[in-house]
Amino acid sequence: MSQLIDGTKISTQVLEEVASEVELLKAEFDIVPTLAVVLVGEDPASHVYVRNKVKRATEVGMGSIEHRLEAETTQDALNDLIDVLNNDPEVHGILVQLPLPSHLNEDEVIASIHPAKDVDGFHPLNVGALASGRESLVPCTPQGCMIMLRQVHPDLSGKKAVVVGRSNIVGKPMAALLLQANCTVTIAHSRTKDIESVCRNADIVVAAVGRPKFINADWIKPGATVIDVGINAIDIDGKRKLVGDVDFESVADIAGAITPVPGGVGPMTIACLLLNTTRAARHQLA
């Protein structure tokens, strides 16, 4: 059995660091780092995510503001709200929960958030800064994956890494972070030929494709580290169960280290969102 990379435990350590930084910002500058969350519509999963984010923010002493908007909210009304939050000095981070209702333009919304308050790290300026190796607010899930990886590999230099998936939210920024850590990086995707062999060559495999149990033991080199970003709800024997993009049972027997689902990357994403908010608050003081 491989080493289990416990995201719940590691996220608790990150949140303790965040709480300490919150106290420092209060003591040094008399400010309370504050996250504004905008939720449009009634998507059940989004409501759960937002509730968890606000709960964790409160636990570490941060301020949180919720804006819950009707599903019929117009683009102009949403943009106007973001403009108000951009210009509010007491708001340090802005998160618009995705996905949005289909009539709203997500790219326009993301671009309307001030880059200094873009704690999701999705604004084009932050994306460009990450790609060019400059300091920026980094997307939360890839950032959490890197923290977990360094628990196993303090020095990632020279490791062969394969990222399975090329989304703007996970795959591409994950590859950029691994490259910054001096890994040799391959992005594999639906058009990759002989994708199993590509993955079998890797010291590190990051799975982010959104397909349940897509990657099995035949894809993994013995001793490799596997980070499973996927979270998929499937029915097993009539019961709803959450599984990753990796077939945990088979891969755990061959990998050197692996993240579970749930309890792996998920808790790290929220912890890194709050970490980004404290970083944004401090940078806004400059």
Automatic annotation (TrEMBL):
<feature type="domain" description="Tetrahydrofolate dehydrogenase/cyclohydrolase catalytic">
    <location>
        <begin position="5"/>
        <end position="120"/>
    </location>
</feature>
<protein>
    <recommendedName>
        <fullName>Bifunctional protein FolD</fullName>
        <ecNumber>1.5.1.5</ecNumber>
        <ecNumber>3.5.4.9</ecNumber>
    </recommendedName>
</protein>
<comment type="similarity">
    <text>Belongs to the tetrahydrofolate dehydrogenase/cyclohydrolase family.</text>
</comment>
<keyword id="KW-0521">NADP</keyword>
<comment type="subunit">
    <text>Homodimer.</text>
</comment>
<keyword id="KW-0486">Methionine biosynthesis</keyword>
<feature type="binding site">
    <location>
        <position position="231"/>
    </location>
    <ligand>
        <name>NADP(+)</name>
    </ligand>
</feature>
<keyword id="KW-0511">Multifunctional enzyme</keyword>
<keyword id="KW-0658">Purine biosynthesis</keyword>
<dbReference type="GO" id="GO:0004488">
    <property type="term" value="F:methylenetetrahydrofolate dehydrogenase (NADP+) activity"/>
</dbReference>
<comment type="pathway">
    <text>One-carbon metabolism; tetrahydrofolate interconversion.</text>
</comment>
<keyword id="KW-0368">Histidine biosynthesis</keyword>
<dbReference type="InterPro" id="IPR036291">
    <property type="entry name" value="NAD(P)-bd_dom_sf"/>
</dbReference>
<dbReference type="InterPro" id="IPR020867">
    <property type="entry name" value="THF_DH/CycHdrlase_CS"/>
</dbReference>
<dbReference type="InterPro" id="IPR020631">
    <property type="entry name" value="THF_DH/CycHdrlase_NAD-bd_dom"/>
</dbReference>
<feature type="domain" description="Tetrahydrofolate dehydrogenase/cyclohydrolase NAD(P)-binding">
    <location>
        <begin position="139"/>
        <end position="284"/>
    </location>
</feature>
<keyword id="KW-0028">Amino-acid biosynthesis</keyword>
<dbReference type="Pfam" id="PF00763">
    <property type="entry name" value="THF_DHG_CYH"/>
</dbReference>
<dbReference type="Pfam" id="PF02882">
    <property type="entry name" value="THF_DHG_CYH_C"/>
</dbReference>
<feature type="binding site">
    <location>
        <begin position="165"/>
        <end position="167"/>
    </location>
    <ligand>
        <name>NADP(+)</name>
    </ligand>
</feature>
<keyword id="KW-0378">Hydrolase</keyword>
<comment type="function">
    <text>Catalyzes the oxidation of 5,10-methylenetetrahydrofolate to 5,10-methenyltetrahydrofolate and then the hydrolysis of 5,10-methenyltetrahydrofolate to 10-formyltetrahydrofolate.</text>
</comment>
<keyword id="KW-0560">Oxidoreductase</keyword>
<keyword id="KW-0554">One-carbon metabolism</keyword>
<dbReference type="InterPro" id="IPR046346">
    <property type="entry name" value="Aminoacid_DH-like_N_sf"/>
</dbReference>
<dbReference type="GO" id="GO:0004477">
    <property type="term" value="F:methenyltetrahydrofolate cyclohydrolase activity"/>
</dbReference>
<dbReference type="InterPro" id="IPR000672">
    <property type="entry name" value="THF_DH/CycHdrlase"/>
</dbReference>
<dbReference type="InterPro" id="IPR020630">
    <property type="entry name" value="THF_DH/CycHdrlase_cat_dom"/>
</dbReference>
